[in-house]
Fold this protein.
Amino acid sequence: MRVAVLSDVHANLHALEAVLREVGAGGFDAVWFLGDLVGYGPHPNECTALLQEQAALCLAGNHDLVVLGKIPIDAFAGEAAAAARWTQSVLDDDARAFLGTLEPRMAAPGAELFHGSPRDPVWEYVLGDDAAEAAFALTQAPLVLVGHSHVALEISNGDDLRGEPAPAGTQLELGRLRRLLNPGSVGQPRDGDPRAAWLEIDIAAARATFRRTDYPVELTQAEMRARGLPEALAARLAYGI
Ligand code: ZN
């Protein structure tokens, strides 16, 4: 079984379509999504419908929960709040209903999935040792999958805890060590590579591969500007920051 793990689409339809084209051409068996379908980007309804149709597992992220009103919007500052308000104003009933069914954590065979972290599935970023240690301590599955930071990352729990950024093409053997993996973000990468980030897991071969996919960033930027979304949110997409 080969799984495509996606996270943090943030209503960037061009990025999501480009990744799903590769996933479709690659003959994957399942798509797992780690949350933040909406927020920041220009196509919340279309992205929600696409993943509702194509993802076998789907989590809610903090942005999804804010847009639904399950978390007060004042949890966000400035641009994130402005984008969440705009998203609330355009979100259709189908998207709202589907997002309303999602939780920020889930279990799958051999893996535990969280938007943020096992300790705080909605808000915590797993970027440092403390959060990583807690993540391994609070889970049992060989594989822990998290999103939320928008940074592709792999952390292994052997004799020592080791964590590294995971640029395009990074391959890992699974099985010997427990791993915590973050696929990075499809729709708003923040690790300096503007291409859409995702993760391939080949369960039979016990191998994980970090992938990046080109998409027309300028089309998403133009759509954000046309909708009056904050300029800084559009500008950052070109740099992957
Ligand atoms: Zn996010």
Remarks:
- Helices lie at 13-25, 44-54, 62-68, 78-90, 93-99, 129-137, 217-226, 231-236.
- The pocket of zinc ion is lined by residues 8, 10, 36, 61, 63, 148, 150 (CB under 6 Å).
- The two ends are 33 Å apart (CA to CA).
